[in-house]
Amino acid sequence: MEKEGSRFLTYLERLYMVKLGWQLSVDRVPYGMRVSVALESCSLFCALVELLWKRLEKDAKAMFRGVELDIHGQRRWWWTVADPVSAIRVLASFVGVTCSDAEARLVWIGL
């Protein structure tokens, strides 16, 4: 089960890189899940990041968010969500992938 979940997450990470040029990262934290995206430029994609934030806030109970800037000028937006299964579904639908609750649970178990 865990192997299938990690494969799906790897697939999502690749899709985010190919379709949007974003580096997606998903990690377990003690109080839920941390989702982060990193990108080079901040023009058009800032609006898309805000759209992703709104969806995570509405559907996945996003509790905290922040923006970090590294030494190379790359921005990383991050969110902590209380409902990881819904967050995985939001992340999948954001790039046009259909994901059931069962598939999202497998991904969460595999983290």
Polypeptide structure, described:
This protein is an alpha+beta fold. It has a single domain (2-110), classed as 2-Layer Sandwich (Gyrase A, domain 2). The protein contains 4 helices and 4 strands. It has helices at 2-20, 44-59, 84-94, 101-110; strands spanning 23-29, 32-39, 62-69, 75-81. Strands 1-2-4-3 form a 4-stranded antiparallel beta sheet. α1 packs across α4 (101-110), α2 runs antiparallel to α3 (84-94) and α3 packs across α4. The longest helix is centred in the first third of the chain and has 19 residues, at 2-20. The mean pLDDT is 86.
Rg measurement, Å? 13 Å
- What is the residue-averaged pLDDT? 86
CATH architecture: 2-Layer Sandwich
Low-pLDDT stretches are none
N to C succession of SSEs:
HEEHEEHH
Beta percentage is 25-35%
The total beta strand count reads 4
**Fraction of residues in helices?**
40-55%
> Largest sheet, described in full?
4 strands, antiparallel
Total number of distinct structural domains: 1
Placed side by side, the strands forming the largest sheet appear as 1-2-4-3
Could you name the CATH class? Alpha Beta
Morphology call: globular
The structure class reads alpha+beta
CATH-assigned fold name? Gyrase A, domain 2
Distance between the termini: 11 Å
Oligomer: single chain
Number of helices: 4
